[in-house]
Write a structure and sequence with these properties.
CATH superfamily: Divalent-metal-dependent TIM barrel enzymes
Number of strands: 8
Shape: globular
Number of helices: 10
Largest sheet: 8 strands, parallel, barrel
Structural class: alpha/beta
Number of domains: 1
CATH architecture: Alpha-Beta Barrel
Order of helices and strands: EHEHEHEHEHEHHEHEHH
């Protein structure tokens, strides 16, 4: 491997062979010291305190560090993905900010991913962009209180999500007056959208605050496709990034089998 960056397991896509609250322990047993999650309650922007306490306990008891957590974003595969820029759903995002940052404060999370939001017919793109800027500012202010960063990422797939390239994301970051907003560089989504990854890294590597990977095509584990992940990660590291590389892929078989490449490289313990 051409880089020495540590890996984290995205436990919303990995270790789905077991229940959500069992995944932190499964990740630790597989050799990971760090994990991340999408919002664990996709239908609840404000879950009951007891549910939050069980989630916090599962992470703590597993002995792993939660390094990333999504804000509530609705149904990631549905028309309401990214509620922060949808006028009829915006209040849910605002209600969720305090809850998400609260979990972050308790568990030492410092990176919070805010899904930008699908385009919807009941609002113009400009109205949605203005609302997004307002809500990202609100989220960034809340995160700053615990020295956290709010992340914005490109997303691929058929949904009408407007941020497709690195340049799209940077344009959003530049519109919002907050110093603790960062580019979540998801190499799979950039590749799937046909972005010029070399050019994107050349232009924006210094804006990267978090990195997620999966191979392309297919969104499987590294080695299942043809994306030159090692070269891109080496470029990212050479430009000063020293954080985690999150494995946000869909295993082609089982999670454990899909980690064979990491064990062979001795990047996680067997």
């Amino acid at each position: 491997m051409g880089h020495l960056l540590p890996y984290a397991a995205n436990c919303s896509l990995l270790f789905t062979e077991v229940a959500l609250l069992e995944r932190p322990a499964a990740a630790r047993a597989a050799g990971f010291e760090a994990i991340e999650f999408w919002w664990p309650w996709p239908n609840q922007p404000v879950p009951a305190d007891a549910e939050i306490e069980r989630f916090v306990a599962a992470v703590r008891d597993a002995g792993v560090q939660l390094i990333g957590l999504n804000f509530f974003a609705g149904d990631l595969a549905g028309p309401d993905c990214g509620v922060l820029s949808i006028p009829t759903r915006s209040a849910e995002f605002r209600d969720n900010v305090e809850v998400t940052i609260g979990i972050g404060e308790v568990l030492g999370v410092r990176a919070f991913n805010a899904l930008y939001g699908n385009r919807v017919p009941e609002a113009t793109p400009q109205q949605q962009d203005d609302l997004a800027a307002e809500n990202l500012t609100r989220a960034a202010k809340a995160a700053a209180a615990i020295e956290g960063t709010v992340l914005v990422e490109p997303v691929s797939g058929p949904k009408p999500y407007p941020l497709r390239t690195a340049r799209d994301v940077i344009a959003v970051l530049d519109r919002v007056e907050a110093s603790n907003l960062g580019f979540l560089c998801d190499l799979f989504h950039l590749a799937n959208n046909g972005d010029d990854i070399d050019a994107a890294l050349e232009a924006y590597a210094n804006r990267i605050a978090h990195v997620q990977i999966a191979d392309h095509p297919g969104r499987g584990e590294p080695g299942s496709g043809s994306l030159d992940l090692d070269r891109y990660l080496s470029m990212i590291q050479a430009n000063g990034y020293s954080g985690y590389i999150s494995l946000e892929y869909v295993p082609t078989t089982t999670t454990i089998d899909s980690l064979r490449w990491l064990r062979q490289e001795k990047l996680i313990q067997p």
